[in-house]
Write a structure and sequence with these properties.
The structure is a homodimer of 741-residue chains. Chain A is α+β, with helices and mostly antiparallel strands. Chain A has 16 helices and 39 strands. At the A-B interface, strand 13, helix 4, helix 12, helix 13 and strand 39 of A face strand 13, helix 4, helix 12, helix 13 and strand 39 of B.
C-alpha cells in the first residue's frame, strides 16, 4: 500500500511544498481562470467498457448542452492502441455500455427520444435496436410517472437493465410496465403512503426476462415496484454455471429492508431461493475469486477484505485501507476463467479511487496517483481502460496494464478544462476536540499571498469531498472554483468517517436500523454535534494559521450537508452566512413521513412525550439561536423546508427560500439539479449571497437583482440580533451588512 | 309570517299527527322502497330561468348517468301555460341560464365537450355558439389545472361567466386564460404557498370583457386568480345606469379578504372605485328597491332586513325570520323599473326556502309550504317559476303568481322518485343543557311501530339539514333513506345556529377573523363542545321517548360534520360507530397550511407554547378516549386524515381509512363526491360499516367483502377497550361485535 498522502501539517508548510511543484507553478502562470460555464460543462463519465481483447473501448460522456437546456450523452469509440477517439452519436441518456462477447459489437441502453431502450452498437458506430419496449414508462418526479427514486431525472424507460451471459449467448433483461390497477379504492396503510404525495403517480411492475441462444424468451420473475433492487439496480446479475442469480427485496416493513438471493436455473427453468440478508448497504453483488461474496469489514486500521462463501466459509485477504462496493468506485469484473477478480476501491486515507486485483488469496492494489473513477476491463483482466481524475486534474482516459501496473495516458475527456490554471487544492486531515478525524481539502484563493486572510466558505456533503474533479455530487450549486477565483478560501470537508470509531458506527447503525441503542441524545451528539465540533475545529485551525478571517465565514451544503449546515447554525456562532440546499430532515413536519429515520434521533414523534428533544434540536425550533443569513435553495418545496424558512423569518433571521422549478409545471427539478438554467442561476445566487453577507459586496452578476433590496431590508431588520457576539474591530471595519450591527 | 312549524313535542305526538295525514298514509301503503340508485339519481336543478313575459321557461336538471360514469345536465324547455316540457339537449355541464331581453332566446354556459362556453339557445331548442374561448383552461383538483376552489369537478372552462344588460344589448363576460410565467424561480411566501401542493397546477388570469351593441368588445379589467370573486363568482354584475359594477377581491393577507366595488362607465370607458368591504360572507350583490345593498342583521328574534344605500343611509323593512344571500336560496331579481325586488330567503324557523318581495319599504313573503330552492322570474316580477321540494317531496316545478301568491304545479322534475313511499321525516327542535337550540329532522324507520326501539344514526353537517329532498350536500355518502329502510332512526341535526346568541356569534366571529377574543378555550367550547352537548341531548330526548336503543348509536358527517364527528367521539361515550367524511381540520398537521383558522381554536401552532391545547382537543391526540369504530372516507388523503387514522390505529381503536380516487390518477374525486361508482361504493360501505358495528350484521351487499375479515380482527383487538363502560343487558344480548366486550 502507498504511504499516507494526507497531512496534518499546517497549510503554510503545504503551500511551501506546492510551490516546488512544477505543474502547479506552470498552471498558475499559464492557464486561464474558471468560468461558471466551466463548472456547468464538466463531463461526467458513468459508462465505459473495454472489448474482450482490450483493443477497443467505448464510453459515454454526459455534458450539459446549455442551448438545448439539458445534459446530452456523447458516445465515443476509442482505439486503445492509438488513443484515437470518435464520437458516434449523441443521445439523451446512456446506461449499461457493454461488449457483446464473441463479437466486435457493443450494447447499451440509449434514450434516442423513445425512452431508454436496448441497442446494439457496431464496431464502426452503427446503431440498431435489440429490445424495444413499445410502451416506455415515464419515471421521475413528474405527473403520471413512476417516482423511481435515486434522484432520477424525469424521463421514459422501456428497458430498465440487461446483461449478457459470459459467452454472449444469453440475454437477461428487465422491462418496466405500468401496473393497471392504480385507480381502485385504497385502504389504511396504502392511504398513509400518499401522505407526502406532491404529484400524481403511477405504479409499475418489472418483468425479468431471459432470452436464450435459440431466440426464445422466458419470463423468470415479475417484481413489484417496492423491490428497490429491481427498480434501481436491475442489472446486478451473476451468471453462475447454469444459474442466473439476482437479489430481490422483500417487504418486511423495516427501514433497511430485507433481501433474498434468487437463482433461475436455465435448464430446470425454475427459481430457487439461496438465502436472505438485511440492511443491505450496496445493491451490488461483488463475487470474489472463490465464488463467494466480497466485503470489507472492521474499523479503520483493522479493516479487512473478506470473501464469504455461500456456506459461510471465509477467505481473508488481509488488512486494507479501502472500501469496496461504493457506487462511486470503478466497478467489478471477474475474469473469464473465474480465477481473478478486479474491484474498484475507495481509499480511506487519500480519498482516491483505485483498483484491487484478487487472485487466490492474494491482493494487489493498482493506482496512478489520482483517482480511477470508472473503468472497463478486458476479458482476461490483463488491462483496463479508466477515467483518471483528481481535484485539480480534469478527467482523462488512461490504459492500465493490470499485470504490471503500467499506465498509458490516452487523452483528455474534457479539453475545455485543460487550459484552466489549476487551483491549489490541498488535502488535509483535521482532528476535532472530540478526537475524531475529518478529511477534506483546502481550496486556496487564486493568487493568495502569505499573510493574507480571506473570507472562507465551508462546503460539506457527507463523504463526497475526495480526489475527483469539481465533483457535482459534492459542490452541488456551490461554485467552489469561482469562490476561490473571488478570493475565498473554500474548505471541502467530509463528515468524520464513522469507520474510525465503534461509537460512531453504533450511532450510525441506530440511525440506519431505525432504532437504538444508543438513545437519541447520544445519536444526535455523535452524528451531528460532533460534526459541528469537527467543522468548528477545522475552521479554527485555518484561522490560527492566519489563512482565514474569522468574521467572514460561511457554510454551505445540500442534502446530508444541509443537515450539517442547519445544525451548525443553531449550535455555533462561527458563521455569518449559509446556504442550505434541498434539505429538511430533522424538521418536525418530516416525522410522519419518515418515522424510522426520526425515531433514533428524537425518540418518537414531535407531538408526544418527545417534544423536548425536538425543541432542543430541530433547526426551525431553534431559529432564534442563528446568527447567520440563511439561504435555502430547494427543488422540492417540502413542508420541512418551508417550516425552517418560516421559523427563521419569525425569529427575524435574514433568510431567503428559493424554489427552482422543473422543466415545466408537470415535472420537478431533481435533488441534484439537472436543468442547466437552474444550475447557472443557483450558482450565481450563491455567489451573490455570500458576497453580500460576507464581503458586503453587491454582485453585479446577481441573478435576481431585485432581491438585493430585500436583502437590505433583512440586514436592517436583523441588525440588533445576536447581541451576545461582542463587536470586534474587524467587524466594525467590515463592509458586510451582517457584521455592521 | 307563517307560524312556527317546528315543534318540540315528543316524537310520539308528532307520529300521531303524521298518521292522520292522508298523504303520508297513502305513501306508506302504495309506494315502493328506496334503492341506492334512487339516491344516486336525484336530479339537482341549479339553473332555471323564466322569459320576460313569463310564458316560457328553461331549466337544467343534473342527473347522474351511471353508465356514462358521470353526471349529465339535461336542458329542458317549459311551456308555462301547459306545463309541457321538452328536453332539448344533454351537456356535461350547464351554468348561468338566462333569457336574452328583447328576444325569445336564451343563453347559457354549456360544456358540450369543448369546455364551458357561451351559447345561444333558440326558442325551438337550436343551439349556437356566442362566445367560444378556443383555449379552455383545465380546472379542479387535477394535474396541470387551475384549482379553482369550491369543490369544482375537474373540467375545462373557456367562458367563466357572463351577463346581459337589462335591455339585452350589452354583453359582459369573463374569459379565463393561463398565466404563462408559472415556471420561474419562486421566493419566500410564494414557496410557502406550495406547502400543501398535492398535484401540479397552473395559474390563470381572468379578463372581464364588455361587448357593446355595435359588436365591439373592450376589456374592462384583468383579475388575478387570487381574486375569489373573479374565479368563483364572476357573473355577479350590476348594471346601474351607464355603469357596470362588480366586486373585486384585493389581497390584504387576512382570512376573510378585502373587497372593493368597481364601476366601469360605458361612456367614459373608465373604471372608478366605489368603496371597500371586509370579511365578505356572500359573493352576491343583492340590490334593494332603493338601489342599496340588502342584508339581514341581528340575532334570532330581532333579525331585521335592511337596505344600505351607498352613502350609508338605511331603509329598514322590519323584523324577519329569514336570511338572505344564502347560496342555497332561490336568487334575486329586480324589476325592469327597479322599483320592486324579489329575493330568495332561508327561513330560520321552518328551515324552508321561500321568496320575499320588496317594494318601497314594504315586504311580502311568499311560500308554498315546502321549499322553493331555485326560481326564474319574469321581467315585471309578476310571476316566478320555481323548483319546489321538501324532505319527503321530490322536486317539481311550480308557477307562482307573485302578486297573489297563487301556486300552480306544473309537474315533476324527477318522475323516478315520485312512486317511492315517502319516509316519515319529522322536523324537530332540540334544546341542549346549555340552552342552545338545534334544528333537525327525525327520519323514522320504515314500518316503525309504537314501542319499538331502533338503532340510530346521527348525520350532521353544519346547517344543511333543512326542508329539501335527500340533499346530497347534507347526507353526502350516508344513504339516509336506506338506513331508514333498514330499520334505523336517522337524526339529521344541524349545528346550533350561531344567530341565536351573541356568545356564539362572538366565537364564530373569532374563528372567521382568525383571532379572538374570545380565547381558544371559549372558542372550542362554543363551537364544538356545545355542539357535542347538543347532539348528546337530542339523542337523549329520543332515547327517553323510547324511540332509539342507546347502545346502538352511530354518527356520521363530512367536512364541518366530520369535525363534529371526531370531537363527539373524543368527548362523548354515546357512540359505537362513526363515519367521518373527508375532514381533517383540528389535526395538528393542518396548522401550517391554515394558521388563521387554527389560531383562534388553539392559540397558535402545535410545537410552541400551545401544545397543551392540542393535547386536550386534537382528535388524533385523544384517540385513546374513543369507544366507537371509526371509518374515514376521504377524497384527499391529506396528512391530517392520515394522522387521525394512525392515532386511532396506535390507540387500538377499530378504524379504517378508505381513499376514493379520481376518474384517473391525474385527477381527484371531489370533496362532495361526483363519480357515480365512488358514490355507490361509499354509500354501500357506510351501510355495511354501521350494520357491522351497530347491528352485528355482515352485509351481503358490502362493497369490499374482503374488508370484513379485517373488521373481525379490529373488533377482536378492541374487545378490551373502553372498560369504563359497564356492560348492560342490552349490550350482552346484542349481536354487534363492538358491544360484546
Amino acid at each position: 500500500m502507498k504511504p499516507l498522502l494526507l497531512s496534518s501539517l499546517p497549510v503554510a508548510a503545504l503551500l511551501a511544498a506546492a510551490a516546488l511543484s512544477p505543474a502547479s507553478a506552470a498552471g498558475e502562470s499559464q492557464g486561464r481562470s474558471w468560468t461558471i460555464e466551466d463548472i456547468l460543462t464538466i463531463p461526467e463519465v458513468d459508462e465505459i467498457a473495454l472489448s474482450e481483447d482490450g483493443k477497443r473501448a467505448i464510453y459515454a460522456a454526459e455534458i450539459v448542452d446549455i442551448e438545448a437546456g439539458r445534459p446530452r450523452s456523447h458516445i465515443r469509440l476509442v482505439d486503445v492502441a492509438t488513443g484515437r477517439t470518435q464520437t458516434i452519436l449523441t443521445a439523451d441518456a446512456t446506461k449499461s455500455l457493454r461488449p457483446i462477447a464473441g463479437t466486435d459489437d457493443w450494447s447499451a441502453l440509449l434514450d434516442m427520444g423513445d425512452g431508454l431502450q436496448l441497442y446494439r452498437i457496431g464496431s464502426k458506430g452503427s446503431v440498431r435496436p435489440l429490445v424495444i419496449n413499445p410502451a416506455p414508462v415515464p419515471v421521475g418526479k413528474a405527473d403520471m410517472s413512476f417516482p423511481i427514486g435515486g434522484g432520477m431525472r424525469p424521463a421514459r424507460i422501456g428497458v430498465l437493465d440487461y446483461d449478457w451471459s459470459p459467452d454472449g449467448k444469453w440475454l437477461w433483461y428487465s422491462l418496466i410496465k405500468p401496473k393497471p390497477e392504480a385507480n381502485r379504492v385504497r385502504f389504511d396503510e396504502e392511504v398513509s403512503a400518499l401522505r407526502n404525495r406532491r404529484r400524481s403517480a403511477i405504479d409499475v411492475e418489472i418483468d425479468y426476462l431471459l432470452r436464450g441462444p435459440d431466440g426464445s424468451t422466458v419470463r423468470i420473475a415479475t417484481r413489484p415496484s417496492s423491490d428497490r433492487v429491481a427498480t434501481r439496480g436491475g442489472g446486478r446479475i451473476v451468471w453462475q454455471e447454469d444459474e442466473v442469480r439476482f437479489r430481490v427485496e422483500v417487504q418486511d416493513g423495516t427501514l433497511g429492508g430485507s433481501f433474498e438471493t434468487w437463482a433461475w436455473d436455465r435448464k430446470k427453468k425454475a427459481v430457487r431461493k439461496l438465502g436472505g440478508e438485511r440492511d443491505l448497504l450496496s445493491m451490488w453483488i461483488l463475487v470474489g475469486p472463490h465464488g463467494g461474496q466480497l466485503s470489507t469489514t472492521g474499523l479503520d486500521g483493522q479493516r479487512e477484505l473478506v470473501e464469504t462463501l455461500p456456506g459461510g466459509q471465509r477467505h481473508r485477504f488481509g488488512h486494507v485501507a479501502f472500501e469496496i462496493g461504493d457506487p462511486r468506485a470503478a466497478g467489478w469484473k471477474r475474469s473469464a476463467d473465474g480465477k481473478r477478480v478486479v474491484v474498484g476501491t475507495r481509499r480511506t486515507d487519500t480519498l482516491r479511487y483505485e483498483l484491487a486485483l484478487l487472485a487466490g488469496d492474494e491482493i494487489r492494489t493498482i493506482g496512478t496517483g489520482a483517482s480511477l473513477t470508472r473503468c472497463g476491463f478486458d476479458g482476461f483482466l490483463s488491462s483496463a481502460l479508466c477515467v483518471e481524475e483528481g481535484t485539480s486534474l480534469p478527467p482523462r482516459l488512461v490504459r492500465i496494464d493490470l499485470n504490471t501496473g503500467a499506465v498509458r495516458r490516452l487523452g483528455s475527456i474534457s479539453p475545455r478544462h485543460d487550459p484552466i490554471a489549476p487551483l491549489r487544492i490541498i488535502p488535509r486531515q483535521f482532528t476535532s476536540r472530540d478526537g475524531y478525524k475529518a478529511n477534506g481539502y483546502v481550496v486556496m484563493p487564486r493568487g493568495h499571498r502569505a499573510g493574507e486572510r480571506h473570507p472562507a466558505l465551508v462546503v460539506t456533503h457527507g463523504s463526497d469531498a475526495d480526489d475527483r474533479f469539481a465533483e457535482p455530487g459534492n459542490q452541488w450549486n456551490y461554485p467552489v472554483q469561482l469562490f476561490a477565483e473571488r478570493g475565498y478560501v473554500v474548505l471541502l470537508l467530509n463528515d468524520p468517517s464513522p469507520r474510525q470509531s465503534a461509537e460512531l458506527m453504533e450511532a450510525y447503525g441506530a440511525w440506519m436500523r431505525g432504532k437504538g441503542p444508543p438513545g437519541p441524545d447520544i445519536v444526535r451528539q455523535r452524528i451531528w454535534l460532533n460534526g459541528v465540533h469537527s467543522i468548528e475545529d477545522a475552521v479554527g485551525e485555518l484561522t490560527a494559521e492566519g489563512l482565514i478571517d474569522p468574521d467572514r465565514i460561511g457554510i454551505a451544503g445540500y442534502s446530508r450537508g444541509s443537515q450539517m449546515v442547519n445544525v451548525s447554525l443553531t449550535n455555533s456562532r462561527l458563521f455569518r452566512a449559509a446556504s442550505s440546499g434541498d434539505g429538511g430532515f430533522l424538521e418536525p413536519s418530516g416525522y410522519a413521513g419518515a418515522r424510522a429515520s426520526y425515531d433514533p434521533v428524537y425518540g418518537g414523534g414531535p407531538l408526544g412525550d418527545h417534544i423536548d428533544h425536538y425543541r432542543r434540536f430541530a433547526p426551525s425550533l431553534n431559529a432564534d439561536k442563528i446568527c447567520a443569513a440563511v439561504l435555502q435553495q430547494v427543488a422540492s418545496a417540502s413542508p420541512s423546508q418551508i417550516d425552517f424558512y418560516e421559523g427563521l423569518r419569525d425569529a427575524h433571521v435574514a433568510t431567503q427560500l428559493s424554489y427552482y422549478p422543473g422543466a415545466s409545471p408537470a415535472s420537478d427539478e431533481t435533488h441534484l439539479f439537472h436543468i442547466p438554467s437552474n444550475r447557472l442561476l443557483a450558482m450565481r445566487e450563491n455567489l451573490a449571497w455570500f458576497d453580500y453577507w460576507l464581503r458586503g459586496v453587491r454582485d453585479p452578476d446577481a441573478p435576481f437583482p431585485e432581491r438585493i433590496a430585500q436583502w437590505d431590508r433583512l440586514a436592517d431588520a436583523g441588525r440588533n440580533r445576536c447581541p451576545l457576539t461582542p463587536p470586534t474591530v474587524s467587524q466594525s471595519s467590515s463592509p458586510s451588512p451582517a457584521n455592521s450591527e
